[in-house]
Amino acid sequence: MTYPVPNSLSPSRVESFTSCPMAFRFASIEKLSEPPSPHATKGSLVHRVLELLFTHAPADRVGDVVMLSFQQAGAEYDSDPEFTELGLDDAQRQAFHDDAWALVQSYLHMEDPTQVRDIGLELRLEAQVGELTLRGIIDRLDLGPDGELIVTDYKTGRAPGLRYEQSKLGGVHFYSFLCESVLGQRPAAIRLMYLRTGETITAIPSSQSVKFITTRTTAVWKAVERACISGNFQPRPGKLCPSCAFQPWCPAFGGDPTKAAAEAPIAFGRLAVA
Fold first, then answer.
1. 234 Cβ neighbours under 8 A, 6+ residues apart
2. How does pLDDT run across 138-189, given as a tens digit for each residue?
3. Are 273 and 33 in contact (CB under 8 A)?
4. Whose CA is closest to 124, among 134, 111, 114, 138?
5. Which helix (H) or strand (E) holds 201?
6. Domain covering 117-217 in this structure, CATH number
């Protein structure tokens, strides 16, 4: 069986395919909608809180405005299927919001938002590399002391160990490439802010790192193309398997991937994404 070859890639799709081609097929090629997870939903909520906070003037990003941003984001998510479909009871909802608030407080200990010169929030950028469109969303783009660009990406999980640090930075180098392609300026720094642990990983992009991203992404896209044409998306068992919603249809666990398109929407109680 063959599948349509996608004509665009994002950092998350690149990571998805390299982590497990089979899971990539389910989510990105067959576009099967997954049930929400507390971790991902909480991350989305915290990102929204910080986005709202930075819509205020720098001097106002303190005290009541922080709480107001949190309350507004919480109200938005109260009716969002990403949150409601978690099915949390009252105690679980309280624990969810308490932890989200703790992550926001952690951010405030990591940097002073009144001193940040932001010029872009949830900034959507895309650029062409041959026939392929590379696109991504930058959490925050700032101006440094000398007018240089700084890319900041919020993370609500724990910081990776040294073994995985460079692979995590790969996604941010991807954004560096987009900035240079679209805005005509390579960022002076790219930062991952790990709110759970209060750690910040910073890298300085170079012409070599930007070139590596285009080379690697093109190679990943060629691998995706081959898999789509051959229909051969191999599972890659690993530490993420226990949390994978598609495990019942994964051949690595005795499942039949050909049944996923019909059975997954019923099992998850959701329709496939158009």
1. 21, 22
2. 999 999 999 999 999 999 987 766 555 555 556 677 888 899 999 999 999 9
3. yes
4. 138
5. strand 199-203
6. 3.90.320.10
